[in-house]
Design brief:
252 residues, alpha+beta, twelve-stranded antiparallel β-barrel, globular
């Protein structure tokens, strides 16, 4: 899958919304003409027609973006990189009936995705739709996101605890309970980073800092970027992606 397909799918969602909004408007018109015959009742169709109009404009806008991106990718070559080889990934959220988080390489090719696997559990898939990790969410005194590899081996967890005055403490732990790093972030905008005990940044998720050279394939400058440069092993990267689950699936 390529990034222009994401924009094409997003366009279809807006098109479906535009068509769906016309259905109640048509029913109102048909019912009024056939039975009620009240001119003022036609005003009830306006909200549906207005919504349909703007949804269709969003559809056209997204389709235009998809075509432009496909043109820009025409000279781009596919890579055989694994998701675990990436030091930077672009994060796009598909907010549908079954929400999905898609991860892309900067060259526009899909690196992987995160979807709901079963109740309170999310799975990380590679570009071939093979499961490579699991994230189990537990909500008790604190929120715990347990991380498992593809063989269900426990690797560690992300603990989120609310303190007085609504302060939130997030800590990344290995399987023995030792702290890998603390997750620090802004409460105003998306900018979260994992900092170890030596105050070294291990990973970061932020919006609004996408490099300009990526814009021909990712036209939205607010596309979140996940940085994993200092998380070298597969285990560390699986753990580092745990705060994606909290950011996009738990908090939303």
């Amino acid at each position: 899958m390529k990034i222009y397909e994401y924009y094409r799918d997003a366009a279809k969602i807006h098109l479906n919304g535009s068509i769906a909004a016309l259905l109640p408007a048509c029913l109102i018109v048909f019912g009024n003409i056939s039975f009620v015959k009240n001119q003022q009742m036609m005003l009830l169709t306006l909200p549906f027609i207005i919504y349909s109009f703007f949804s269709f404009q969003f559809y056209l806008f997204k389709i235009h973006q998809s075509i432009a991106i496909a043109r820009n990718m025409s000279h781009s070559k596919s890579t055989n990189y694994s998701l675990f080889d990436a030091s930077e990934l672009l994060v796009l959220f598909m907010n549908t009936q079954s929400p999905e988080l898609q991860l892309y390489f900067p060259n526009g090719y899909l690196a992987g995705s995160i979807k709901k696997y079963k109740r309170n559990t999310y799975a990380l898939y590679n570009a071939k739709e093979e499961v490579i990790g699991f994230y189990q969410v537990k909500r008790r005194m604190l929120i715990t996101i347990n991380v498992h590899d593809q063989n269900q081996n426990h690797l560690g967890c992300l603990e989120i605890k609310k303190h007085p005055w609504k302060k939130v403490k997030k800590v990344l732990l290995d399987k023995s309970g030792r702290m890998i790093g603390a997750v620090k972030g802004s409460s105003v905008f998306m900018d979260e980073e994992v900092i170890n005990k030596k105050n070294k940044q291990l990973g970061r998720l932020r919006r609004g800092w996408m490099p300009f050279e990526w814009s021909p394939l990712f036209p939205n400058p607010n596309t979140p970027v996940l940085t994993l440069r200092e998380l070298k092993s597969e285990r560390d990267k699986l753990l580092g992606m745990a705060f994606l689950i909290h950011e996009f699936f738990v908090e939303r």
